[in-house]
Amino acid sequence: MICDLTRTLAEGMPVYPGDPQVRIDMIATPPWRVSALHLGSHSGTHIDAPSHYIAGGRSIDTFAPDRFIAPGMVVDARGYAADAPIGAAILDGYDLQPGMIVVIRTGWEAFWQDARYFQHPYLSVDLAHALVERRVSLVAIDALNVDSTPGGGESAHAALLGAELLIAENLCNLDALICGQTYMFAITPLLLHAADGAPARALAWDIDHRFGTFLRS
Question: Which of 26, 61, 120, 198 has the most C-beta neighbours closer than 10 Å?
């Protein structure tokens, strides 16, 4: 079974303070229907490219598709208080390999459409550097931001994007996955020219060890 970890883009959904609100306008041209989309590059489930924070950094369209599809695992970071830093110790006991996708599960997806969603825990500097040292490919989180939103933090973005380690935010449905088990992930952004990020579809499925990436029945 394929697990969909993506937030549906819809009007009224949470966005980072100051970012464009999502608006979808239906344009009727009978018998056809066309929609005009108004949204930011970091709306909903999305990927941050280095150029989101790093001057002269790479844009989202410069990365090959295989950068967004890789084995990975969910790391359990539940139990942290609101707006608390998540320490590097959460990685202990996880067999993280270079090139993996690492999904940080804070449990904060439960507060979607609640004011508490903006008070999420965030990656400490030590955790961000530990992920860089492990040479993982992409770090994802089930929260609005890998840095503190109330505190306007930027240290995790600086460390990760400075090392060209991509970031995905606003994932959901992580309760369908087992922490520490290896899955195949595909977190694929829209191919936007020279963009600093893009909305993405995030999927995960079991690895069949006999056939590599085929689905188990």
Answer: 120
